[in-house]
Amino acid sequence: MTELTAVIRDLRAELEAAVTAADGAALLFELGPIELEVSVAVERSATAGANVQFWVVEASGEGKVGSTGTQRINLSLTPRLNPGRATPLVSRAAESDEQ
Length: 99
Prior knowledge:
Blueprint: E1 2-3, H1 4-22, E2 29-30, E3 34-44, E4 52-56, E5 70-77, E6 89-90, H2 95-98
Antiparallel strand pairs: 1-4, 2-6, 3-4, 3-5
Domain Trypsin-co-occurring: 3-79
InterPro entries: Trypco2
Region (Disordered): 75-99
């Protein structure tokens, strides 16, 4: 299982790479809302100051979740550039990346 924060962090890194690759491209795409559906397992720690962690269930088929309850959640993320909060523009990878 992977932490939900890691999934969102990796998605952010991929989107930032796409924005960087679009720099100077003639054809750009506006990045709209991102719909992300994941199956999560909820884990509560029994220590003082208990917190809740969300783990994304990987599709490996190993069935390690066992008796842990899982839920499917949908996240709607709207990417914005910081500062200014403009809508990012992306394009396919630069030609130098494809060779």
